[in-house]
Each structure stands twice: as structure tokens, then as C-alpha cells.
Amino acid sequence: MDTIKGLLSPLTSASSNAINDTVLVQKLVVIGGTVETARRMTVSAWNGFVDSFFLTAHFSQEDYPYDWYVICMLYDIATLLNSDGKQVDALALQGVPSQQPAWGRSREFDITTRSISRHGLTQSTSGDLEDEEEESDQVLDGRRKRKGDGDYPQFGVVARNNDILKKLVLEAKREYEKDAEHRVHIFMADTSYGCWRWNGARQKRPMSSIVLEPGVKDMILADCKDFLCSEDWYAERGEDKAPEIVLGALTFNPTGIPFRRGYLLHGVPGSGKTSLIHSLAGELGLDIYVVSLSSKGMSDNMLSTLMGNVPSRCILLLEDLDAAFTRGVSRDEKSTGTPTGSNGSSSSSSSSSSKSKDSDNEDGSTLSLSGLLNSLDGVAAAEGRLLFATTNHIERLDPALSRPGRMDVWVNFKHATKWQAEGIFKCFFPAKNDKPTASESDPVDAEKVAVSKRKRSTHVVPLLSEEEISELAKRFAAAIPENELSVAALQGYLLKNKTRPRECVEEVAGWIVSEREMRAKLKKEKEEREAKEKKEAEELAKKESEANKKTEEAVIEV
Ligand SMILES: Nc1ncnc2c1ncn2[C@@H]1O[C@H](COP(=O)(O)OP(=O)(O)OP(=O)(O)O)[C@@H](O)[C@H]1O
């Protein structure tokens, strides 16, 4: 106290005494510093004291627990934390049997109680929770990068023991997995960073909603399932069944079959190629990793890195395979596989080759066919994945790209047949089910079904009897010309009439006429535009050649 008085006394007697300004300033600084330090120490001590009662978990967007946390926020946490015996047994949860088939396990993540620390929770793609120090490796790996700038939501609880956090995260995980059973996760290739970005989770699409010619869906589904269960078979074929060939440092096993399978879905636009892949992913419980080969910045190295980073059990989707090489895909002896020719033909002229390379470099894409082939089945390519490639122009693909071993199963998608038209009509207008189902006969289940139906139907659809729907579907199919309109076009028409099944059939003939007229008009416009462009190009070339001629004549005169 005396010290403070001593320090302050000069202030009070300021008017009477001659004060040394410098000393006064120094004293004020010392007083201020002391007070601030004392304040900070008090606050820090208080925070430390309060924090000793709290545990805080940080959820990074790059980690799977982030998803679980978000779901958990939607879930009633009060239910989790109340003490009426509903608390989750963490150890029991670890033993929850999986609902996923064996090949879908890559989507499951085990939580180990050892790994939850007071510092935070992170999770690697391999599934174990790890301490945050290891996070940088995971980000480098890049599989779990997503949109967003990496904000860290936090969750704190008043507790000294971290059991409550474990329970919370485990319950969140369980809720998340329950939800994920109905969704397909989509990851997109990010060519800026050479990583996969999570692009959202879509509701699974039932296979029954895809209308293809009889047997096609079943064939593909059975083939995929068979492949996913055949790892041992492939491995056995890779064992020493035949003498190895040694070429320098490399050893080849002639009977080794890489554990990969490729499907080439080709055909007209809007025929269900992409929809089928999404539906298959849902059925098989796999995530989809999408690469657009024509995207900016795509290069051989980039593709190889991306391909090497897909998990072993997933669907790898190469969309619009032909668009990667917009001028067609071809390999000639002189080129390294970069696209050549302007119309899908394989031109070996060096000028066209160099032109095409220039234009590739303009948009930052330097992907070559050789690079694509290497990343599909090179040493670094992931095993166990299902490769799906789609294209509208199979004729533009190099045979090397579509050969068996790279694309084992080819499926041709055509315009809608009458059979498909009937099927899609029935998908749109489900018949009224007169007899109660087994679950509906149970009053509790019946209530649940009624509630879910109410939730689903946001518009009034008249439910017709099975016979009437069947008859309408037949009439609809009879009016649809075979192999002329895409299924997507039919879907568009049905969507417009989703609440008017009877009128939809009555008006379909008129719609077909208008569709044909519109197509003819579009075709005519396209032809006129092309003719105009051709004429302009010819005139330009003529003017250029005249100008060149004049310049040459002028040079000769000089
Ligand atoms: N066979 C089909 N069964 C059910 N729906 C279909 C079918 N074909 C197309 N559709 C519908 O048409 C729309 C477009 O289909 P999708 O994107 O799968 O066609 P695509 O063949 O992949 O087209 P593109 O080649 O232009 O990418 C989707 O909404 C889908 O529901």
C-alpha cells in the first residue's frame, strides 16, 4: 500500500511541486503494465480453473467426425445425455454389427477409445481416430479435402472425464451411418490440388426406377457383385501358376490378372447411363469418385495421382470419355497420344498434331492418351475399384482405351423402346394397392407407412387401379415411336403431366408431333448456322489468299 501511495503521491502534488515529466511517464507505464499483467494472470488463472471442468472437441471439416457432429446436432442431444438409462454404451457400439456388405466396409470407420484425447479428435481415411498432430499427413493425402475454408466447430461439455465425449461421438457416428445407408457419397477430382473433394451425398436411387431392356440391369449388378467378391480368385490367378518372365529389373507374371473391372456405358444422351451408375453405387454401398478428363489443369501426373488415391472399394467414374480429347482420341507413332484430328479421325500430320497440342495447352489440359492408359492400369492404379466410363461417341475412342482389360463390359444405351416407355410410365404412376401389405395390416406399422406416404407426396397424384395403370401404360407405349426419343425426353413429358395420368396418354400423340417439329426446326437452324460459318470461313480464306497474292506481287514489283 505504501508503495502505491509513494507512486501516486507525485500525482497529487503535481501543481505545487516541480515534476520531472519523464519520471512521471515512466511511473505511469509501470503502473499500467503491472495492472494489465495482473489482470491477464487473473483471467488466465480463472479460465484454466473453469477449463479444468470442461472438455472440448474440435471438428475439422476434413474429418469424418465433422459429418457425425453435424448429424448429431440435428439429433436430440438431450436424449443422449439424459440419465434415464438411454445412454450409449461406447464399448457396445464398437461391436455393432455392420449392415454393409463386405465390399462396402471402406465406408465404415472404427472408433477406438484410446484415440480420443483432450486435445481434439481427427480421423484418417483408414478409419481410426487419431490425435491432431497427424492431421497434416491426412490433408497431404488429400482424400478427404472438401469445399470450405476449414472452420473448426467446437463442442464442449462440463466434465473432467472424456467418456461423455466418446459417447457423444459414437452416437453421432451411429446416427450418421444410419443416414448414410440411404445415401451415396460423391467425390469430385480437384485438378488444382490433385485431391478428391467431397461433393455431397445423394439419396440412393432404387434400381427399379431405371428402365432398361430386360436383363441388362441384372447382368451388370450380378457382374459387379461377382467382381467385388472375387478378390481371392484374382489373387490366385496372380500366384505362380506359370514361369515368370524377367526383363532386366522387371518381373512379369503372365497369368496375373489385376483386380480391376471396367464398364463402358456408351450411347445416346439421356438414356440412363449416369443414373444407372448412381443406382448401382447405392445398391452396392459404394461411393462414387468422378473425374472429368476434360477439366482444366488435367495432366498425366495429375490423373495418375488421383487414380492412385481412390480407395480400394469404390466406383471410379470417368464421365464423357471422348470429351477428354475433344478432337477424338487416337495414337499415332509420332505423337505421345495427345489428341489429333478435328473430327475424330486419326490424322498423323505434324501440323494438326501441333495445333491440337497448342489448344490443349491453352486450357491447361495436357492429358495424353498414353497418360490416361497408364493411370488406368499402371503400377500405381488402385485395385479393387469398379471403373465406369461413359461416352456418347464410342467411335471416337481409341481401341486401346476400350479394349477388354480396361473396359471389360460394354453396354449400349439406345433411344427408348416401347417396352421402356411402358416401364417408365408405370414408374411414374404407381398403381393403388388395394390389398393391405403385411406391414400395413399391423396398426403401428400402418400408421408409420401412412405418415411416410404423407411426407413423400407433396402433390396430389390420383391413384388408379393396377388394371387401369397397366392399360394406360400400354396405350402410352403404343403411341411412342420405337428408338426415336430418349428416355430423358419421355421423363420430361411425364414430369409435366405427373398429376394427370389419363390426360397424359390422351395428349401423347400431339406431344410427339410437336417434338418432331421442334427437332426439325433445331436441325434446320443448326444446318443453317453451320452453312453460314462455312461460308464465312471460305470468304475469310479467300480474302487472306488475295491479300497474300497482292503482297507477293508488290514484293516482286519492288
Ligand atoms: N433408362 C432410364 N430409366 C430411367 N430414367 C432414365 C433412363 N434414361 C434416362 N433417364 C432419366 O433421364 C435423365 C437423364 O439421364 P442420365 O443423366 O442418366 O442420362 P445419360 O445417358 O447419362 O445422359 P448423358 O449421356 O447426356 O450424360 C435422368 O433424370 C434419368 O432419370
TrEMBL record:
Query: SUPFAM superfamilies per the record?
Result: P-loop containing nucleoside triphosphate hydrolases
GO MF, any single term: ATP hydrolysis activity
One Gene Ontology cellular component term attached to this UniProt record is:
mitochondrial inner membrane
Where's it mainly located?
mitochondrion
Residue span(s) of domain AAA+ ATPase? 259-414
Q: Which reaction does it catalyse?
A: ATP + H2O = ADP + phosphate + H(+)
Cellular compartment(s): Mitochondrion inner membrane
Alphabetical UniProt keywords: ATP-binding, Hydrolase, Membrane, Mitochondrion, Mitochondrion inner membrane, Nucleotide-binding, Transmembrane, Transmembrane helix
Stretches with biased composition (Acidic residues): 128-138
Taxonomic superkingdom: Eukaryota
Q: Gene3D superfamilies, from UniProt?
A: P-loop containing nucleotide triphosphate hydrolases
Against PROSITE patterns, the record matches this protein to:
AAA (PS00674)
Query: What are the Low complexity biased-composition ranges?
Result: 341-354
Membrane topology type, per the record? Single-pass membrane protein
Region listing for Disordered, in residue ranges: 119-153, 329-366, 522-558
- Per its UniProt record, what InterPro entries does this chain match? AAA+_ATPase (IPR003593), AAA_lid_BCS1 (IPR057495), ATPase_AAA_core (IPR003959), ATPase_AAA_CS (IPR003960), BCS1_N (IPR014851), Mitochondrial_chaperone_BCS1 (IPR050747), P-loop_NTPase (IPR027417)
Instruction: Give the UniProt family note.
Output: Belongs to the AAA ATPase family. BCS1 subfamily.
Protein name, please?
AAA+ ATPase domain-containing protein
List the source organism: Ceriporiopsis subvermispora (strain B) (White-rot fungus)
Q: Lineage of the native species?
A: Eukaryota, Fungi, Dikarya, Basidiomycota, Agaricomycotina
